[in-house]
Design a protein that fits this description.
The complex is a heterodimer of chains A (186) and B (118). With 186 residues, chain A is of the alpha+beta class. Chain A contains seven helices and eight strands, in the order ββαβααβαβααββαβ. Chain A is elongated. By secondary structure, chain B is mostly helical. Chain B has a single domain, classed as Four Helix Bundle (Hemerythrin (Met), subunit A), CATH 1.20.120. In chain B, 81% of the residues lie in helices and 0% in strands. In chain B, helix 1 runs antiparallel to helix 2. Chain B is globular. The chains are: A alpha+beta (186), B mainly alpha (118). At the A-B interface, helix 1 and strand 3 of A face helix 4 and helix 5 of B.
Chain lengths: 186, 118
């Protein structure tokens, strides 16, 4: 059973108070082995008690679609952006809407991407070649960029989708430590 | 057996009241994180009392408590399941007055179920 709930046609029942229902955390990261499914329900401004009760009803529905335990949290649009909400960045950056199927950031008018700056300057020639094969492929095999929809923006800078960050970083680390990762919302 | 029953019930009632009064004290002093934790502990004592009143047993862990309630008392399970994440996150998340009030309300629901005067 896929844990990518945003890719499934979920028949969820929820009220007009719901701004969005978002999957985030380890279960949206490619090739991860999550222990649970993290869901956040963002409401328009309604009393907290009502938010919690509605979120519980949504949780019960979602649990039917997953073998892993579903953990649900709720916010309204004001409390979501509060400085005390430590999961805000993760949700904004990696979160996938179970309503639209798209990135949650899109709903707010943003695109979320990872940019990786790297330098091959101090590498031996064979490692530069390995790095190139890793990104662009070799002998008809897809490299990471083609496989995961990334782009080479210029030499030394690639841009990828957030959920593939771990895959790229672990592959790059095998060849060089001279790289920097930036999270971009634009 | 009856004596054991009385002792267990008395202990659970006493701990529930003690946590509740401490929660009220923290609530009045606007220490909402502490209040949330203590209201939740009140809730747990009352859930255990409710379980004892209905099954003659008390759970020994959160896992068992959740399992027993999920099977036997879905309405109680719903309250526990809803409130537990706040208890877990109380050391990294700022708890609000509104949340503390919601938790207090849930302890009062359980107090009514167990017929305990808080």
């Amino acid at each position: 059973m896929t844990q990518k709930l945003w890719l499934r046609k979920l028949k969820l029942i929820y009220s007009k108070d719901v701004f969005d229902i978002i999957q985030f955390g380890s279960s949206v990261i490619e090739e991860s082995k999550p222990n649970d499914i993290d869901i956040v329900v963002i409401f328009n401004k309604i009393p907290l008690k009502e938010q919690l009760n509605q979120a519980q009803e949504i949780k019960k529905q979602l649990q039917k679609y997953s073998e892993l335990p579903v953990h649900i949290t709720s916010f309204d649009l004001y409390s979501f952006f509060d400085k005390g909400n430590f999961s805000k960045e993760n949700i904004l950056f990696y979160g996938r809407s179970l309503i639209s199927g798209n990135y949650f950031s899109k709903k707010l008018g943003f695109d979320s991407k990872i940019q990786i700056y790297y330098s091959l300057k101090d590498l031996e020639k064979k490692d530069k070649v390995r790095f190139n094969y890793m990104l662009n492929g070799k002998k008809g095999e897809y490299g990471l960029l083609r496989k995961y929809g990334g782009k080479l923006l210029k030499p030394g800078l690639i841009e990828i989708y957030p959920e593939f960050e771990d895959i790229f970083v672990s592959s790059i680390k095998k060849i060089t430590t001279n790289f920097q990762v930036k999270k971009i919302l634009f | 057996m009856n004596e054991e029953k009385n002792i267990k019930e008395q202990i659970l009632e006493k701990t529930a009241r003690e946590y509740f009064y401490s929660a009220e004290d923290d609530f009045k002093k606007e220490r909402y994180n502490s209040a949330v934790v203590l209201y939740f502990k009140t809730l747990i004592a009352l859930v255990d009392l409710y379980t004892f009143q209905n099954t003659g047993n008390t759970p020994s862990s959160h896992t068992e408590r959740f399992r027993i309630c999920q099977i036997n008392f879905p309405d109680v399970y719903n309250i526990l399941d809803k409130d537990f994440p706040f208890y877990q996150n109380s050391y990294i998340q700022i708890m609000t007055k509104e949340l503390a009030e919601v938790m207090k309300n849930d302890t009062e629901i359980m107090a009514e179920k167990t017929k305990v005067n808080l």
